[in-house]
Amino acid sequence: MNYGNIKKYDIADGLGVRVSLFVSGCRNRCPGCFQPETWDFLYGKEFTCETEDEIIEAMKPSFISGFTVLGGEPFEPENQMVLAPFLEKIKRIYPEKNIWCYTGYVLDDDILKGKRKYTEYTHRMLSCIDVLVDGPFVESLRNLMLEFRGSENQRLLNLKEYLAKLNYEI
Prior knowledge:
Radius of gyration: 15 Å
Order of helices and strands: EEEHEHEHHEEH
Strand content: 15-25%
Number of helices: 5
């Protein structure tokens, strides 16, 4: 997996000060996307053990609230394979910090078991994610007043609560 950027003091992509990873690769290609360069799976740098260590180290300060993964598209199958064990590692090392994930896919339609983006790694990712922002960016629904979202169709989900309402076990 490649990544385009690591932000070590991000305040735009979740509550509090966060460390954020922008993965590369996205098949959604939403018109008006704020990072179209991340559509290319080869964009940026290779995600390595050193990259993991850099992120883990950046998360050490107590003022860091958590980790955000966005892109590109974290739920592309190629990215899930790398992100699932990494998110588990973050949860193990920093159980008190939360994990946010942004996806252009819709949880219910694309990501849950049996859906088109579900892989052998999806369940592991979902079990680590505390807040999921889902849905494609829709330029005609763009709204700069929304907190942590770009368009009105996107949802901000407390993932564990939402999945519990669906009786979906993670």
